[in-house]
Design goal:
The chain has about 425 residues and is an alpha/beta fold. Helices cover about 45% and strands about 20% of the residues. It folds into two domains: about 250 residues, Aldehyde Dehydrogenase, Chain A, domain 1 (3-Layer(aba) Sandwich), CATH 3.40.605; about 150 residues, Aldehyde Dehydrogenase, Chain A, domain 2 (3-Layer(aba) Sandwich), CATH 3.40.309.
Length: about 425
């Protein structure tokens, strides 16, 4: 254990030193490295997939749940998507050095802000090997060094992907040490990492509620948390029901094991009789288990082959991460807003309506990182938002909210141009 701690501290100090060089690295060098990472992912696909196969089979044998197994799994198509996202990051404007809000004061001082990297970002994550590349590429483009500490269940996958990124950086002329990967999976190493204030400027946990709680309560440096998604979709009395079926189906079924998947639909009583049978029949084709309140059960119980379960209090505010969803019939938009306020995790919430005032009221009053009118919550994603990738989805309000990408990995400093001014 002492050897692992020494390794962590050594890599931390090396990352700290190289972060000062990365802050001034030319955009061309960073982009060359990113293109190299994307190309190497494709060229070394077999190696990466073989490493992932070892992790996946071990995790499955150990009894890992389906949601986590899905997040762990890599495939040729998923690697292709990861490589595409890296190329997208390369094509985005470099945020470092951007001048903001420049103005001239009455005394002649020119004052503004200049965007700067944070320094060293620490990432602690579970099961998701794509995070290795997502975070590395975003940190590289935004001029930050990164220390990666993945979970035991994805060690081989993470190690292979980190090696790809590190080699591509070296080949492109990026100073050595920009991407640090911690091989040790000792749990106590996480606690030590959380005490490395002065070395690590920001910690980002990606994983379940237990990891996020551990990091939030013990880190000595700033933390950005999120990823727990209890996502509601409200079907208003004026909703286009054909659209509403398609959207709710996509939000629940397209990939049910992720944080932006739908967990609960709230249906206005005036359209419940028409809408609920329509969405229930579609969900049934995918095997969705529906946890229904009394009014929803009364409407749906006559339809054969539905997986209906009477809802209990614990179904409201639950992140299912599976083919399960809660259903509640409400009397008004006000009741839907109250339910969301009480049970939302602040991730992604949606209203389906053809009434402009209802849509705008929902967008204005719902307190979440991403609020939708007439679209699936599955779009809450850095890639889907045109950000290339994401370092995480923040559900807090400081300093970033929603998908975090390049600009969210920077801070700023004030710059002031004078011509001899002194303060009176």
């Amino acid at each position: 254990m002492e050897l692992a701690i020494r390794e962590l501290e050594k890599k931390g100090q090396e990352a700290r030193a190289v972060s000062r060089k990365l802050a001034f690295l030319p955009t061309e060098t960073k982009n060359r490295a990113l293109i190299g990472i994307a190309e190497a992912i494709t060229a070394r696909e077999d190696e990466i997939l073989n490493a992932n196969k070892i992790d996946y089979e071990r995790a499955k044998t150990s009894g890992m749940n389906e949601a986590m197994l899905d997040r762990l799994l890599l495939s040729s198509s998923r690697l292709g998507a990861i490589a595409h996202d890296v190329k997208t990051v390369a094509a985005l404007p470099d945020p470092v050095g951007e001048i903001l809000e420049m103005r001239t004061l009455p005394n002649g001082l020119q004052i503004g802000k200049k965007r700067t990297p944070l320094g060293v970002v620490g990432a602690i994550y579970e099961s998701r090997p794509n995070v290795t590349i997502d975070i590395s590429s975003l940190c590289l483009k935004s001029g930050n060094a990164v220390i990666l500490r993945g979970g035991r269940e994805a060690l081989n996958s993470n190690s292979a992907l980190a090696s790809v990124a590190q080699q591509a950086c070296l080949d492109a002329g990026v100073p050595q040490g920009a991407i640090k990967f911690i091989q040790s999976t000792e749990r106590t190493l996480v606690n030590h990492m959380l005490r490395m204030k002065g070395v690590i400027d920001l910690i980002i946990p990606r994983g379940g509620s237990g990891l996020i709680k551990l990091v939030s309560e013990n880190a000595t440096m700033p933390v950005v948390t999120g990823g727990i998604g209890v996502c509601h979709t409200y079907i208003d009395e004026s909703a286009d029901l054909t659209k509403a079926v398609a959207i709710a189906y996509n939000a629940k079924v397209q990939r049910p094991t992720v944080c932006n998947a739908l967990d609960c639909i709230l249906v206005h009583r005036k359209v419940a009789q028409a809408y609920l049978p329509a969405i229930a029949k579609e969900w049934a084709k995918a095997g969705v288990e529906m946890h229904c309140d009394e009014r929803a059960i009364a409407i749906l119980k006559a339809i054969p082959s539905l997986k209906l379960v009477p809802a209990v209090e614990g179904d409201w505010g639950k992140e299912y991460l599976s083919l399960k969803a809660a259903i509640k019939v409400v009397d008004s938009l006000d009741e839907a807003l109250e339910h969301i306020e009480r049970h939302s995790s602040g991730h992604s919430e949606a209203i389906l309506t053809e009434d402009y005032s209802s849509a705008m009221r929902f967008l204005n009053e719902v307190d979440a990182a991403c609020v939708y009118a007439n679209a699936s919550t599955r779009f809450t994603d850095g890639s889907q938002f045109g950000l290339g990738a994401e370092i995480g989805i923040s559900t807090q309000k400081f300093h970033a909210r929603g998908p975090m990408a390049l600009k969210e990995l920077t801070s700023y400093k004030w710059i002031i141009f004078g011509s001899g001014q002194v303060r009176p």
